[in-house]
Structures are given as C-alpha cells and as structure tokens.
Design goal:
The chain is about 30% helix and about 25% strand. The protein has a five-stranded mixed beta sheet, sandwiched between helices. The chain has eleven helices and 17 strands. The protein is α/β, with parallel strands linked by helices and about 450 residues long. Mean pLDDT is about 80; it is low at about 375-440.
C-alpha cells in the first residue's frame, strides 16, 4: 500500500505550526507535529519578513530533526482575510464511447481555474459539490460512467493576492517548497462538521490568538468565511490591564489558571507578586470574572456578525476549534450565549489531540480526497525543473492565467513562487510525497 504523506504548514499570529501525516487505508497517522511562537505576523499579514522567516527556519529544522529527513513539499494554509467564495458551474463535452476519466474531471477544474477572478484576488481552492452526467441526478464521483456531457457544480475560493504572495514568499525564504495552498478555514470546517451539519446548516468558529474565523455552511455549501480581529490575545490583554502585570505574565496566568465561570467564591489566591512598589494579588474568582467577561464579548461579537448578515443563528449547530476553545467552562458559556448546543472538536489520533491542530488535519484530508478525485495521488514533482526556464515551458502542463501576472526579472533564476504567480500554479493539485521517496 502506497504511503500518502502530507506536510501542512500554518503561519498563525501566535504560532507557526507544521504537521506531517500519512494517510493509508483511509486512516490518518501523525508522523510529526511541531510548533513555534510566531513573530512578524499580525492579523494574518506579514509585517516583518526577517522575524517570521527566522522562526520558520527554526520550525523546519525542528521537524526535520524529528523525522530525520528533509521535507521536500508542504501545503500552506491561507487565512480567511478578504476572501471570496463563489458558486461556479462548468460543463464538458464527452466522448460517449469512453467512460469518464480522471483527465475529464481535471479538465473541469482547469477550466474553472482559468476563469477571471474578482479584482486583485487569486484562486486558492475549487470545492466540488456535485457532478451531473447528461442532466441526470447529481452524483459525487462520476468516474467510469458513460455519457455525452459532464457538469461540475462547485465553489471557487479566492483571496487577496498580496496576502497570498507574502505568505508564500516568507515560507520559501525559510526553505519550504510550496506544493499547494489551501483556504485553511474551509478545509477545517469540512473536516470538523458532520454530513448532517453540512446539510442542515452550521457555524464553525476557530478562535485563535489574534483572529476569530467564522465559517458558515448550509445545504452543503460554504456560505461565507470571514476573520474578525479578536481572539485569545484580547483575554491576555484584559488580564494584563486589570492586574497591572506584563503580557507574558498575564498569558502564563491565563494558561495555568484560566477558566470560565466558577461557582465557588472562596478567596483562593493563585498569583501574588510585588514589583515597582506595588503588590499584586489575584484570586481565582477575580481571574475567572475577567476571562469570562472577555469570552462573553467574543461570543456576542460572533452572534452579532451572524445576525447582521441574516444567518439563522438560532437554527444552526455551533462547532468550535482553535486553542482558545479548550479552556474549562467554554461549552457552558457558549451554550448560554448562543442558546444552542455547542461542540468543541479535538483530533482523536495519537500525536495531535489539541483543537489547534484540527486545521492542519483538515488540510491534509481535503487535499488527499482531491488527489484521489483527479487521479494524481502518485505524482512526484521535481521542483528543480523550475529554474532557468521560460513560461512557455509549462504552457501544456499548467493552466495559464493572464490576470495578476507579475513582471519577472529574466536575469535571475525563477523560483517556484515566480512560476506560481504566472499560472495560479498551485491549483493543479500536484501534491503528494513530501519526501524524496521512490514509488514502485
């Protein structure tokens, strides 16, 4: 049985994370997961290239030391900032004497990728919803069926080109080779939500350090995905301001003693210190009151967003992920605010049992299923071919997009990033085999 190995990279505001996993016989095995405190990233945007590149280099070295071999290719998560999700349909004429093949499905995807994008957006993912053969009932997988016409109903996810290119740039400067990009929130939601929730309607929320990402689905469609500028850092700042301690101390107190709602009013002292002529004494109840207030504000902001955008907030399930969702008392407070049952999803596999790793697992799962659909699960890509070549070299292999094409200095070597910008090139789904393994 061939290994299907994926390395997934997320460059977050609080942490940069990477997970290497192997999907075999429909089961996912975590080979390594590493994280490092991120600097140079604010609200998903690169604000200091040197700082984040150095952190990513260290992260790469850590995971390679753990695996005892080099990482060749990675999937990169793109945050839901200025992203769009559009419903698209594409139809392909078939040879009625030949069964539908992987090549036919791949052509449908290429045609959608080649469609112009809005303003300065760049295409990230195509999310298939259903295939229709000769106007018959919709099916999930048309491979092997005979027909005259194949139609794909899908959704096309795009994001700001400057944000995407900046994240790609820092990852490649750190030595990573980007084989594909993924809208992380969508991959995470599709993994975290059950088929019933996808159909009925659900709100998936990832509460991170600096951003809270809300993804709404209904009738099998991703309705929207947006990031709000609030998260766990707001809680840390509230603790820092309330008790006159620095943010590092406030974060430590939050992680070690934080909880939401505490019935006991016993004056249990959890932190005391004297500095700058001022004595600081914090009880468990005092801390709980501050944290509960800030989480309540975050929940109400989420609810306000849903109401203002006319989503049926009282008729959908709520599913949470992200490190900030694992605090004690989280589900109780969320249920109180949303008046619905809520769920916190945590991975069940060994090596990754924290809610903050759900996005990386969702990315690997999404890309694996896509690779099976278009029949490219055994591809090994030699990225050295991208050096010292002209754009025409790839014209028969990758879809060429005329919009947002950068001007490249012909006097220097072309990187994979250059090639990607010319072709929206990450979208051909040439992912798999991050290690230099030989396929029999």
């Amino acid at each position: 049985m061939k290994n299907n190995i994926y390395a997934c990279l997320e460059i977050g505001c609080a942490e940069a994370r990477i997970m290497v996993c192997n999907i075999r016989q429909e089961r996912l095995y975590v080979l390594s997961q590493q994280s490092i405190v991120a600097t140079g990233i604010e609200n998903g945007n690169v604000v200091n290239v040197n700082q984040i590149v150095e952190k990513l280099k260290q992260l790469k070295a850590n995971v390679e030391a753990d695996l005892k071999q080099d990482i060749q290719n990675v999937l990169l998560a793109i945050p839901s900032i200025e992203c769009r999700i559009d419903n698209v349909t594409n139809t392909l004429d078939l040879d009625p004497n030949q069964p539908i093949s992987h090549a036919n499905i791949k052509q449908l995807f290429r045609d959608i990728i080649n469609q112009p994008t809005y303003h300065d957006q760049v295409a990230i993912n195509i999310i298939p919803r259903a295939f229709v053969v000769d106007d018959n009932h919709a099916i999930q997988n048309p491979l092997g069926i005979l027909g005259n016409e194949l139609t794909l109903h899908a959704q096309k996810a795009t994001a700001s080109s400057s944000l995407v290119y900046n994240l790609i740039n820092v990852a490649e400067l750190a030595g990573f080779r980007i084989v594909d990009i993924v809208l992380g929130s969508v991959a995470e939601a599709l993994y975290a939500l059950s088929p019933e929730q996808l159909k009925k309607g659900a709100c998936h929320v990832n509460i991170g350090k600096g951003m809270t990402t809300i993804t709404v689905v209904h009738s099998g469609k991703v309705v929207s995905s947006v990031s709000l500028s609030t998260g766990g850092q707001d809680v840390t700042q509230a603790i820092s301001e309330a008790f006159k301690v620095d943010e590092a101390t406030a974060e430590m107190i939050k992680l070690n003693f934080g909880q939401l709602y505490h019935e006991s009013t016993a004056p249990e002292i959890i932190y005391a210190d004297e500095g700058d002529g001022q004595f600081v004494c914090i009880t468990r109840q005092m801390l709980t009151d501050i944290i509960t207030s800030r989480y309540e504000a975050i929940f109400k902001l989420i609810k306000q967003y849903l109401i203002e955008n006319c989503y049926k907030h009282d008729q959908m399930d709520y599913v949470f992920t992200g490190g900030a969702s694992e605090i004690e008392g989280f589900t109780w407070l969320a249920k109180t605010i949303f008046t619905q049952e809520v769920t916190v999803v945590t991975p069940s596999m060994l090596g990754a049992r924290q809610a903050k790793y759900v996005k990386l697992i969702g990315m690997a799962t999404f890309n694996h299923e896509m690779s099976l659909l278009i029949g490219q699960k055994s591809n090994i890509i030699d990225f050295d071919q991208y050096a010292n070549v002209t754009p025409d070299t790839f014209s028969n292999e990758l879809p060429t997009v005329s919009l947002n094409t950068p001007v490249i200095d012909k006097g220097r070597e072309k990187s994979f990033m250059d090639h990607k910008l010319e072709n929206s090139g990450v979208l051909l789904r040439i992912f798999d085999m991050i290690f230099d393994e030989k396929v029999e």
